Amino acid sequence: DRSFDRAYANFMPHHLPPDVKRAGLAEVHRVLRPGGEFRVFDFGRCSLPWRALFFLPTLLRGLVPPYWGAVGPHLRGELPRYLEAAGFEVTALRRPFGIFELVAARKTPS
Fold first, then answer.
1. Where are the beta strands (DSSP E) in the chain?
2. How far apart are CA 45 and CA 35, in angstroms?
3. Of 6, 75, 103, 106, most Cβ neighbours within 10 A?
4. What angle do CA 100, 67, 72 make, to 5 degrees?
5. Which among 45-54, 62-71, 72-81 has the top mean pLDDT?
6. In this structure, are strands 4-10 and 88-94 parallel, antiparallel, or unpaired?
7. What are the structural domain ranges in the chain?
8. What does pTM read for this prediction?
C-alpha cells in the first residue's frame, strides 16, 4: 500500500473487460503514494476520423463481439472517466497520431 511514486500502463488496459479494468485501476491507486503519478498510453477516441480505418481489419475478421467490449470504451474516449472513478485526477490528455491517448493522472493527496 502507498509504496510507489509512479506507475505506467502501455497498451494494456484496452485488453481488459470493464470490470477487470476498474479493479486494475483501483489496485494501481492503492499502491501509489498520495500525489503519485500514473501514465496510460493506449487506444483512445479518434481525433482524426479517418484513423478509425485502423480497426477495419478487425471488423472484417469478425472479432468485434469479444473484442469490442474491452476496446470500445477506449475508442469512445472513456479512459479518463475510468481513471477519475478510481480516484485519480486527470492532469493531462493528449491524442497523438489521431488514434491513441496519453493520459497523465495523479493520486490526489489524502
1. 4-10, 32-43, 88-94, 100-107
2. 27
3. 103
4. 50
5. 72-81
6. unpaired
7. 4-107
8. 0.82
